[in-house]
Every structure is written in C-alpha cells, then in structure tokens.
Amino acid sequence: MASPASVTNLGSKGRPGPLPTAAVRRGHLVSRISFTGFDGVRRLPCAPGRLCRCMVITNLIEEKGAQFSSRPSVSVKADDDKDLLSKPPQRPVRPNGPPESMNTATTSAPARKPAVATVQERDKVRESLDEVLEKAEKLKASSSGNGDGGENHVLSQDGVSKPNSPAPMGVEEGVHSKRTKTLKSIWRKGNPVSSVHKVVRDRPRTETRGQSISAAKPSVSSPSKPVPQLLTRPSVAPPPRRPVKADTSQEKKGPILIDKFASKRPTVDPAVAEALVDPVKPVRGPPAKVKDNRRKKIIAPAAPRRRMPNDDRRSVDDDAPVRKGRRWNKAKRRAARLEALEAEEPVRVEILEVGTEGMDIDELAYQLAVGESEILRFLSVRGAMLDNVQTLDKDLVKMVCMEYEVEVLESDPVRVEEMAKKNEFLDVEDLDKLVARPPIVTIMGHVDHGKTTLLDYIRKSKVVASEAGGITQGIGAYQVLVPVDGNPQACVFLDTPGHEAFGAMRARGAKVTDICIIVVAADDGVRPQTNEAIAHAKAAGVPIIIAINKVDKEGANPERVMQELSQIGLMPEMWGGDTPMIQISALKGENVDELLETVMLVAELQELKANPDRNAKGTVIEACLDKAKGPLATLVVQNGTLNKGDILVCGEAFGKIRAMYDDRGSLVDQAGPSNAVQIIGLNNVPLAGDEFESVDDLDVARERANTRADAMRIERINAKAGEGKVTLSSIAASVSSGNQAGIDTHGLNVILKVDFQGSIEAIRQAIEALPQENVSLRFLLQAPGDVSVSDVDLAVASEGIVFGFNVKAPGSVKKYAKQKSVEIRLYKVIYDLIDDLRNAMEGLLDLAEEEVPLGSAKVRAVFSSGSGKAAGCMVTTGKVVEDCNVRVLRKGKEVYVGTLDSLRRVKETVKEVGAGLECGIGVDDFDEWEEGDVVEAFNTVKKARTLEEASASVTAALKGAGVQV
Ligand SMILES: Nc1nc2c(ncn2[C@@H]2O[C@H](COP(=O)(O)OP(=O)(O)OP(=O)(O)O)[C@@H](O)[C@H]2O)c(=O)[nH]1
C-alpha cells in the first residue's frame, strides 16, 4: 500500500520528486493522486480514501511535532475511531478531497471534481483539521498507553523511526521467535551465537506472499541493514515508515499551515519507490471494489472485526486498506509467521543441537534444507517405518544428520552428580568422596549366538597367563585387564545366568551391571532372546554395546543385523546413532580387542564412581548351598569396601563373613568397589539379585532379614499364588467355556528348592520340554536352599507341591508339611524330578474317550416297529452287539451317533449278530432310516492321556472353535 510519505515523494513518472505543494494546499492533491494516479495514467495500488486521510493526518502530526509516525494514526483512525469516519469534522473537507475520501460512501464522485478553494472553505478546512489534530493527539496518547497495534516508534540516531516494541505487529514477532529457535537449535562450527544469527539473517530471502504492512516496515526504516527474510516483498511494499523529524517535541505546537506540508516531506526510500512502481505487482481489481468492501464495513460497524489469516493475503494482494491495530490478532500474526517460514529459503546448518525428545520431521527438514519426503525416504530405506510419525527420536535425527554431514550436539549431557544420585547404591554423603571404579559388564544374547565363546576368549586372552588357570569358574564373575592407552585397566565380567525361562534373573543381572554386551550372531540376526536381553538392559538403564558375532561364518550378514537392531531402537553409531556395534568373531578372537576398548570407552563416559570408605553395599549374583561350607554367595560390591568379619544382611539371609574368595579362588580380606567375591558365613542361601549391605551388629542384621523374609512371604502368597501366565490353555478355557471336547485346563503350583542357582536353570529348561497347554506350571518360588517351614506355608496358601533337588527337608519341616497336608518330593536325579512332575501334571488331566470298532452293517429295508421305525440290516464286517454305540452314515456322511436300543434276529432279541447274518436294529431317538445307510458299531473306553495327546486335542478343539493356534 502506498502511503502519504511515498506518494508525496513520487514524481509524475513514478520517480521521487517534489510534491506539488500548490495542489496540496488546495486540497486537490490527494484526490487527484488517489484516483487518477500521478500522471493521470497510473493508479496507485492503494485505496484512495485511506491514502488521502493518511496523508492529511500524518502531515498534521508532523506539523505538530508529534513523535509518532503515520501508522498508529491510520490504524486507530481506520479501525477504532468511527467518529472520524462518519462525523462532521471531515465533511467540510469533502470538496477538497482528502477527508471526504475517508468516507467511502462518497469517495469516488467528489474525488474527481476539481475543488474550488475559497477562503471560507479554507477556514472550514482549518477548523476541521484542528479537530482532526486533537483526535490524533488523543489517539496517540491512548495508543502509547495500550500498545495496541500502534507500536511506539522512537527515533533512532539517524532519525529513522523504529519500533521499540519487540514484536509490534506479528511478523516481527515471527522473526523474533525464529531467532530464538536459531539460538536454541542451530550452531555453526566455530561461530559464536551472534554470528549464527547473522548467518541466518543474511541468507537470501524469497518474497513472502501476503506480506503485511508491518512485515515490510524494517526494510523501509533501515534499508541499509540486512533484511530479515520475511520482510522482503517489494511488490507489496508496505507504507514506508518515514523518518519523523528529530525535533518533534509535543510542546512545539504552532499554527497549522497547510503550506508547510510540502517542506516537511521526507525523502523517499528508492526501494519503496521502486516497489510502488514495480509492474510485477499490479493493482488487483478496480478501486471501486475495495470501496464496496469498505462500504459494507461502514454500514455495519458493529460487526465482529475478527479476520482470518487469509484475509491478510487478500487485502495485501488487493492493496486494500491496511488493517491495523487489534486486527493484527494472534491468528494473523501466526499466519504471517507461517507464511514467512514457508517462504524462507532454507540453508543447511552445520551443527544441529538435539535434545532427548528428538525433533519434529518438519523442523529437521528445515534445518537440513531438504524435503520431509526425502528424509522419510532415507529412513525407510534404512528400515525405519515411520507411518504417521511426526517426531523422530534422537537416534534417527543423528542418523539423518550423518547422511547430510551435519554434526549433532546433544543438548542434555548427563552430569556425573546426577548419575550418582540416580544410583541407589550411592548416598548423598558419598558424592564428595567418589573415586573411579572398574566397569561391571554382562554379556547377554540369544542361545548359541556365542556368549560363552566370547567370555572364554576374553578370559583366556585377557587374564594374566599365570592367573588364568586359577580362576574359579563357579564364582560367576571375573576380572580382566584391558589395555587402555597402554595402561591395563580392570574390567569385571559377570557370567550370565543364561536365558530361556530366566528372564527375572537376567533382569537382576542387568541391574548389577554398568554395561551390557549383547551378542547377536551375524548369521542369525535378532532373535526373541536378543529382544528380551535388550529390554532388560534398557529397563535397567544400562548402556548397550552390540557384538555382532560370527562374522567369519558363511552367510553372515552384519548389515541385516544392524538394520534389525535399528528397527527396535538401537541405531548403530556408524549410521549416526549412539549404539556401538562391533563386528567380531569370538571363535577366532577377531575384533575382540576393539570390543573391549569400546567397553572401556563407554565406561569412561559413564564416569563410574564409588566411595570405598564406607560400609559395603551391593548385589548377590550367585548363591548355592555347599555341602561342606554351607550357604555360599557371590557378591558384587557396588559401593564401599567389604571386609572379612563384616556382618551382612543379604535378602532374607544374614550372617558374619567367615571367609572371602576372589575370582581366582584366593582367600582375601577385602573387596573394594566393583569387586566380586564369594563369601561363607550366611545363615541361609540368598537369592541371586538380592541386595546386601554390611551392618553394625548381628541383631540388626537378623531383624532386617526377618522383616524382609516376612515381607517376601506375604508378597509371594498375595501376588503369585494362583496367578498363572496366559497360555494356550487359558485361552482355550475362555473360548470354549468347557464345551469343547478335549479341552481341560489345570494349573500346578510348584515350589522348587535346589542346591545351586544354576540347577534352577537346568530344571526349568528340562521342564520347558513338557507340553503345558493343559496343565500350566506356576513356579511360586525357585531358590537354592533346604526346604523350610516358609516353603510349606507357601505351598499351603497356594495348594502347591514342594519339589526339592539335591536338598534336604529337616524332620521338623517334614512333620509340619504332614500336618498341613503338603507334599514334599525330594530328588537326586533331575530326570526323576521331571518324570514325577510329568506324572503329576498328567494326573490332573481328564481321561480321554477312545472308540473301539466292532463291526458294520448295511440297511436293506426300513419297517415299522411299534411307534417308531427299525432298520433291516445285513452285518457286513465284525459284529453288532447289544447296547453298543452306533454311527449311521449316509453316502459317507454321519447322520446319527447314539446307542443301539434293540437288536433282533427273526423277532428274537439277541446279544450280538455276526458278519453275514441279517438283523433288525432299532434306536430310540432315530427313525429316519433309509435303504443303503451304513451302520458302524463301536464301543468307547476311557483312557489316560499323555501331556502331548492332551495338547494335540486342545489344538484340535481350538481349531474347531475357530481359534488360530
Ligand atoms: N564360526 C563361528 N562360530 C562361533 C563363533 N562364536 C561362537 N561360535 C559357535 O557357536 C556355537 C555356540 O556358541 P556358544 O558360545 O556356546 O553360544 P552361547 O550363546 O553361549 O550359547 P548358550 O550358552 O547355549 O546360550 C558354538 O558351536 C561356537 O563354536 C564365531 O565367532 N564364529
């Protein structure tokens, strides 16, 4: 939109030039320019009425020395001060054009009339202008008070009016928010933040559609400065904010001399002038249309003035009168911001800062200056399925950035103190006494993927030769020395408890560890237990290092493994993620050193610390009952120092340490942080995963152990008794409600006591071979140690059976069990235990009915017999016997199954009829005999089923019920 300032500086050819002062004086200029253009050919792309009024008011204000530009005046006048639009003070000016032109209802015709400036009329004009001036001053005062749209402008050094509000008109706010974002997320290598701004601001801008008056303001007010991107559309040049005269004190009010207007004219910015004459932005639509729109508004001034963002575009494109003030509502500002963002020409950043929450795809695309679809395509090639995903997690962002060679900075480095506080083994008092400790590493993974081979290789290659032979295999942990920068550093590896049905124990193992190596065979890929191991490690918040093993094998495909892992949230470092993945051959020892170095690097980043000068705390990683030594427990010290003679509480067990052995089987007196030792002296066998702590005296230890034992007992009884996992049989039960033949479901609660923790795994593995579709086993407790009274209590509460393997049940416990009618079964051989368990499970199964065929007969005639009908048959095979079951088949299809009620031969009732003889057969509830039917005679017997047979019948029954199995 053109403005008074720009108009007054344009010559008749559209170039800057002097304003015809005389015409202004006569009040002609505005109307002439507005409606016929400067030279009578070219029309201004601006609403004439608004233009005229702007000019008059602006110049009046300038004359009065007001310190605000034309914008607030126009804004308030146009929108808020209806008086000015309709009240008489403007009327007297009407013949001269400008004021009248504000009233759109009367604009066009009078504007074309040449005005006759009589003295009287001029006086009237002066009077009316006085009034206008007063109003302008009032409005100025009010606008400066509420800040509404009429942004306060202050004079800069060079006399250029600049907004002193941070975001006066929305678009500037958009710029502001953009800058904030830039600050937060964009960093450029070697550049300070301020230069980042500069880079962003200086980059080339494209034109912005729908640019509003305020959007263009800065380009006018400081044309020599870099133009913010969204402030650039010359063809929709906003009203230039002309510099207001520097010395414009309110007090300096002189008489209003219209003649002065010309001399006060500011010089026009050439860019603005060009914008105004720029032919690429022609006026859209005739002025009359604009006038009509405005007329509507005047007719209904009370109508809501809220406008949609699109209206901006239309009004700017049409060069309709600029709406200001509160019409610049939030929606409008947002629309302007969005448009500006759309129109920006993105420049790829060099460094991108990303938080843990990741980043929206559109934001990432913007920062990388690529299309969203390109990013999505790239990710889908990498195997990431992102349907309906709006936000990429940190790893995906890194991966994409790596592709575009953009460095990623993580915005939230975890401070060691925070980590320390998170670790439950550290107390607040420890924080200022922390020293570095070796990492504790666990190796997990799917069966046969090479865990043991890797552990063996590490053990053989990294334990000092003289010590290797002395390592006690049973301790479940050993320490190796890994050279880091030439210095051997300690690293503790835990023997993992295996996998299969041992999820809970593994979860405990992962909790103890600082780093988890997950072994994935390159020829097999991610398997169920790989997922399980990853889940445990993630749940425990343990960093994961992937060892892609067996790369030496034919068919090895490490890329596929990486792709599979990336799909479950582990993005390889080499793809921009943060999960180290090392390709190794555990068998040949290839790259195992690199794996260990990575372990140490990750450990270093974790800044693992502990306070050795305090009582010991840690976790039991293995426990067993030794016939000679009594309960044995392997402990990992996670904080403090454990000493021989310390009194420990260890889950439900307690006692004084009588002896301590390290991983080489040597007696030791002390174990510091991260050390694993085997101890003797507990009163009972603790559970792997139990936490331990050294306390001051035995009484405290006993009390705490008993409290814990009670709590655990109640927990087991309440939480576990009667609880079964969802199995096929439970589904079957719910589907069939017992109506389907062959489905019978049962649960067997088991309390398993063993000599070693490792035996549990062996027994569980063997038990897994038993089909459990019909009888599900619920292990309420599986622990090392002799059978105790509390085990019997648990069996009572859950109606379970106590199985003991290589353990004893003291006489008092046996007596107690007898009183409570609890069965204790003790075994020395694992297969005996399994066989008995199988028998117990099969004993719960319903007996199956089995058919025994007798013979068959063919129906030759049908005749009446009493109230019903009977079939005259010839026995073709076997025999038909009294009271047997019969099945009637017609053309191969079964039409009846039931029991034979009468069997006759020549009117005589007989017990059986053999092959080759005729007989009469009658069935009570079946009369629809037909010649040619086949009668099959059979008996049924009840038979015990094996678990496998029961399982097969369940499967068949489920299929019959339409359940997919
Ligand atoms: N070719 C090749 N074979 C390997 C490699 N690592 C392990 N194996 C073989 O894979 C098989 C299983 O290895 P283990 O180390 O027992 O696997 P595991 O994961 O410990 O198995 P479980 O203890 O049963 O869970 C063995 O026959 C190993 O010799 C390797 O890097 N290359």
Report the CATH architecture of the domain at 438-607: 3-Layer(aba) Sandwich
User: Can you count the beta strands?
Assistant: 36
CATH superfamily of the domain at 438-607: P-loop containing nucleotide triphosphate hydrolases
Assembly context of the chains: single chain
Fold-level CATH name of the domain at 438-607: Rossmann fold
- Which spans have pLDDT < 50 for at least 5 consecutive residues? 1-117, 144-326, 413-423, 464-473, 497-510, 719-742
Major sheet: size, sense and barrel closure? 9 strands, antiparallel
Overall body shape: extended
Describe the structure.
By secondary structure, this protein is α+β, with helices and mostly antiparallel strands. Among the domains are: 351-411, no CATH class; 438-607, 3-Layer(aba) Sandwich (Rossmann fold); 611-723, Translation factors (Elongation Factor Tu (Ef-tu), domain 3), CATH 2.40.30.10; 743-843, Rossmann fold; 848-944, Elongation Factor Tu (Ef-tu), domain 3. 37% of the residues lie in helices and 22% in strands. The chain has 34 helices and 36 strands. Strands 28, 29, 30, 31, 32, 33, 34, 35 and 36 form a nine-stranded antiparallel beta sheet that branches. Strands 10-11-9-12-13-14 form a six-stranded mixed beta sheet, sandwiched between helices. β16 (617-626) and β17 form a beta hairpin. α30 (757-768) packs across α33. It is extended and about 135 Å long. The two termini are 74 Å apart. One of its GO terms (cellular component) is cytoplasm. Residues 120-140, 199-208, 244-254, 308-321 have a biased composition (Basic and acidic residues).
